[in-house]
Design goal:
Mean pLDDT: 94
Low-confidence stretches: none
Structural class: mainly beta
Helix content: under 10%
Number of strands: 14
Strand content: 35-45%
Shape: globular
Order of helices and strands: EEHEEEEEEEHHEEEEE
Number of helices: 3
Distance between the termini: 38 Å
Radius of gyration: 18 Å
Largest sheet: 14 strands, antiparallel
């Protein structure tokens, strides 16, 4: 596995606040490494989620609280023009707090439109080691035990053969049999930095790739169907100890054009939490 085959240096380039711009925002230029598998004119949901996590991490104090639940809302297409991010703390607190980050995408006329939002709960840590309970055993094999590739396999009977399309071609992946649904479990991490010149934190890393759960958890044919999520919510029981995220997902589909993806999440040390996504299911005509 050779990460040098990834033709990008980062997902975002930092920009100075433009003349007349709002100094409460950070400004970024997305690279084409952020492109969606559904359209090269918009971003995949993963990199914006990572960028929102980056903003929230930088906004909160070092107060002993951990991120325990994070919801990312995709409010509209996240364009490849200039993006800007602003963070607020709607609910400060010593034991429990809430932090929010908004991502706005530049329109052709130079104005900005809200495109994505992350809202997270944080809790003060304490000792609950005597009552630790994990609903699932660790994944049998770690990433280092498996064959690692860039992107997804191009010929695969068990999962969607995404190949190297857009953002997918910037991720390192390793597969093994899954236990949630009929698709493989996947280890995944970004192969490139989130922001140029920065080292990515473990939380930034896992939220940059978590959005792929709805693509991992189905065997739908993307030439016949599209399935796009409007949100991703993750409930964590611990903090990641490495850039790798294990995803064992299953996409449940109803008869009225929508479904939901449910995934067990893993760190290299064991069970990490669970995620859920709302999915719009559309047949191609």
């Amino acid at each position: 596995m050779d990460v040098s085959q990834v033709p990008y240096s980062s997902y975002y380039e930092p920009l100075p606040v433009p003349e007349g711009g709002d100094p409460d925002y950070e400004y970024f230029q997305p690279t084409t490494a952020t492109a969606s598998v559904w359209s090269q004119d918009m971003q995949h949901g993963g990199p914006p989620s990572g960028l929102l996590m980056r903003a929230m991490l930088r906004a909160v104090p070092d107060d002993g609280q951990d991120f325990t639940r994070v919801t990312n809302e995709i409010i509209g297409p996240v364009g490849l023009g200039v993006n800007r991010v602003r963070t607020t703390i709607p609910r400060p607190g010593k034991r429990i707090s809430m932090v929010q980050a908004d991502l706005e995408s530049e329109l052709p006329d130079g104005s900005f439109r809200l495109a994505a939002r992350a809202v997270a709960w944080r809790m003060l840590t304490s000792d609950s080691a005597p009552v630790v309970n994990a609903p699932a055993d660790p994944l049998p094999a770690s990433p280092d035990d498996l064959t690692q590739i860039i992107g997804f396999p191009t010929e695969d009977e068990d999962a969607v053969p995404w190949g190297m399309v857009g953002f997918i071609g910037t991720a390192v992946t390793a597969r093994q049999p899954g236990r949630n649904g009929k698709t493989p479990a996947l280890w995944i991490r970004p192969a490139i930095p989130l922001v140029a010149g920065e080292e990515m934190s473990n939380l930034e890393s896992i939220f940059t790739v978590l959005d792929v759960a709805n693509g991992v958890g189905t065997r739908l044919d993307p030439t016949q169907w599209s399935w796009m999520n409007m949100d991703t919510t993750a409930h964590l029981v611990s903090q990641p100890t490495s850039p790798w995220l294990g995803i064992d997902a299953d996409l449940a589909i109803g008869a009225r054009g929508y479904g939901a993806t449910f995934a067990d999440l893993y760190d290299v040390t064991g069970f990490l939490g669970r995620s859920a996504q709302s999915d719009m299911i559309v047949g191609q005509r």
